[in-house]
Every structure is written in C-alpha cells, then in structure tokens.
C-alpha cells in the first residue's frame, strides 16, 4: 500500500537512510542504474546478507523499490528525481570542521 508522506517525514526518512555509508553507496549505485542484489553486493564489496538488510531499510524508507523479473528481483530508486537529489547533495559544498563529529552519528538508525 502506497502512503504519501509529509514533507518533514519524507526528509527525515531520507536523512536516516543517508546516515549510513553503505546505504549511501547503494543509493548512489542505484542512481546510476537499476541493479540486481548479487551485482550490487559484488560492486560494493559487501555480503549479500548485509546488502539485503540495507535494501530492506531503503524499501521501508520508500527510497527504493523491488521489481520482480521472473525468479530475480531488480532494485531501483523509487523516483528518478531521487537520483538528481543525490547528485545535488553529493556535489554541494558542506562546511565541516574536521575535528568534530555529528552528535547523533552513533545513535542514528534506519527509518
């Protein structure tokens, strides 16, 4: 069942998804092209089990969708505009003090 989120809820889900480096890498890879889990696992150098957990999180956040193709499942961004948003975020200049870390870095979980 598709649920429409509020602006704040949608941004919060996006932020929580981006809080994990592996999920960031998955989103960036899927921004380039849809992919199968086995291919993503190999490309990212992580186990299929670990990848599966991250894909489940990204699905729950509404950022990726699973597209059945016979006996296989292909993953892609849920909306092509997410790829543009990721590119904008990736290329934005962020002022970061190198000796500081985000106070929520250790407590941020998935959606």
From TrEMBL:
<feature type="domain" description="HTH arsR-type">
    <location>
        <begin position="3"/>
        <end position="100"/>
    </location>
</feature>
<dbReference type="GO" id="GO:0032791">
    <property type="term" value="F:lead ion binding"/>
</dbReference>
<dbReference type="InterPro" id="IPR011991">
    <property type="entry name" value="ArsR-like_HTH"/>
</dbReference>
<dbReference type="InterPro" id="IPR001845">
    <property type="entry name" value="HTH_ArsR_DNA-bd_dom"/>
</dbReference>
<dbReference type="Pfam" id="PF01022">
    <property type="entry name" value="HTH_5"/>
</dbReference>
<protein>
    <submittedName>
        <fullName>ArsR family transcriptional regulator</fullName>
    </submittedName>
</protein>
<dbReference type="InterPro" id="IPR036390">
    <property type="entry name" value="WH_DNA-bd_sf"/>
</dbReference>
<dbReference type="InterPro" id="IPR036388">
    <property type="entry name" value="WH-like_DNA-bd_sf"/>
</dbReference>
<dbReference type="GO" id="GO:0097063">
    <property type="term" value="F:cadmium ion sensor activity"/>
</dbReference>
<dbReference type="InterPro" id="IPR052543">
    <property type="entry name" value="HTH_Metal-responsive_Reg"/>
</dbReference>
<dbReference type="GO" id="GO:0046686">
    <property type="term" value="P:response to cadmium ion"/>
</dbReference>
<dbReference type="GO" id="GO:0003677">
    <property type="term" value="F:DNA binding"/>
</dbReference>
<dbReference type="GO" id="GO:0003700">
    <property type="term" value="F:DNA-binding transcription factor activity"/>
</dbReference>
<dbReference type="GO" id="GO:0010288">
    <property type="term" value="P:response to lead ion"/>
</dbReference>
